[in-house]
Amino acid sequence: MERPDDALSVSRNVTGRAQARGAPQVDRLADFLGRQTDLGGTIVDLRLDETRRKSGASSGTQVFDLKLRDARGREFERRLVFRYDLGGAFFFQYNLLDQHRVMKVVKQAGFPCPTVLWLDADGDVAGAPGLFMEFVDAPAPAGQPFAEGPLVEAAPAARRAMILESVRTFARLHKLSPAELDLGFLDRRGRGDHFIDRELDWSARELLNSIPEGFGGARRAYYDAARGDLLKVRDHLTNYAPRHRAPELTHGDTNLSNFMYRGEKVAVLLDWELCHIGLGEADLGYCLAGNDHFLHLLPPMDGVPSTDEMAQAYRAERGKLEDWDYCQLLGEWRLAVYQAMAFSRLPETMAHLEETYWAHARERLARFVSL
After folding, report:
1. Whole-model pTM above 0.90?
2. How far is C-alpha 124 from the geometric centre of its chain's CA atoms?
3. SS3 at position 343
4. Do both 95 and 176 map to the same domain?
């Protein structure tokens, strides 16, 4: 029988496997930073924060503290974050350079995004591209946001306010114009003539790279069935895509594990590697699917808004909620694809949990498509 702590164990295993690669070397960090003319001073000391990360499966992240000395001899400290490509450890189409460009643009547009600083495009620090960001002084998110972290620690009324503010936050993102922000480079993400087709293609290729034909050994039949169902939903989404829609800037990973809060307000929305030109309402569908996923195996939790409440908050902030059935399914499908990819990496001792979560995801998809 599954227990509530199984949900936390699964989350920590997924994060831990992605972060198994060692931390960046201090001397390489110091060498790269020492070449930045706007660092603010000369490096006196650099210390890595070795605290275990509670979230993140697709990139390496290292927090560190700098002690600097300015031109007048005064010493001060600066806390920074280095985020780096793990070489396809999760997404093989991972593009950190595009993330850097997107984050700079949306931050300049006034959106609550981490402040990006320098880009290590050549991989001098970690052997693969990386970017530096200002540290966000707010409680760290958790990979399982309903088992530990800020949302769990909040009172039910505050939890409800935090989640609804997250919805309003990404609804504001969808008001931004991709054309005015000069984000045309995102059009090369995925293949296809229409932006919806390109996102479906991008996610499907990730699925087929992680769970290809013949994958799974003794559990091959399980993976064949799961892959087949996910591709069937992909085909449905392709056939019924609302191609009349204008392209919108979409975050792509609006799980509550990617929000940092100060009180009941959103401090920043993290993890922009899945940002794409798509349908804004799909971010709401993805967030709702994530809530359902995270609450699976956990006891009921007060203060989590209903689907209708979150949809109403989105519509009130955005001014519209269109093609909602389609966008709900699109969000569900994208989350199910990435869940299947992540859980296929779990150890054999967790196979029963993988299958339990997949059965739940399949039930959610079957509300929209006959499987």
Report:
1. yes
2. 25
3. helix
4. no
